[in-house]
């Protein structure tokens, strides 16, 4: 009986080892170039943003509610998976700080606008 239990335990451990050895978690996406929709949680408005990423630096365009094309600059800090963006429009600017999902299709964060307004945002990749 002990020999049978030993064989079953050995088979179980071998199977578990093979399963865990073959498991590879999804690799985190670190590239965020593309078209995005920014949803401002304070008023539930949505605006388009296009980003280009080169060596961890962002440039791009954001279109505000008045249809102004605003410049976007920023950076991605890979070791803490943080994205910071600065949106500069003709009459105001926004500082954004967010954290992307592992698949690179969602960014969730907070913003500071008009030097005193704070709130949250969600960006989804189009």
Describe it for me?
- By secondary structure, the protein is α+β, with helices and mostly antiparallel strands.
- The protein has 1 helix and 8 strands; from the N terminus they run αββββββββ.
- It has one helix at 2-22; strands at 34-40, 45-54, 57-63, 69-77, 82-88, 93-100, 106-113, 117-125.
- It has an 8-stranded antiparallel beta barrel.
- A hairpin with a 4-residue loop joins β5 and β6.
- It is globular and about 40 Å long.
- The termini are far apart.
- Residues 1-24 have low confidence and may be disordered.
Topology record:
Blueprint: H1 2-22, E1 34-40, E2 45-54, E3 57-63, E4 69-77, E5 82-88, E6 93-100, E7 106-113, E8 117-125
Antiparallel strand pairs: 1-2, 1-8, 2-3, 3-4, 4-5, 5-6, 6-7, 7-8
Number of strands: 8
Query: What would the average pLDDT be, to the nearest integer?
Result: 85
CATH topology term: Lipocalin
CATH architecture: Beta Barrel
Low-confidence stretches: 1-24
User: Largest sheet, if any?
Assistant: 8 strands, antiparallel, barrel
Name the CATH superfamily assignment.
Avidin-like
Notable characteristics:
eight-stranded antiparallel β-barrel; single chain; 126 residues; Lipocalin
In summary, what is this structure?
With 126 residues, the protein is α+β, with helices and mostly antiparallel strands.
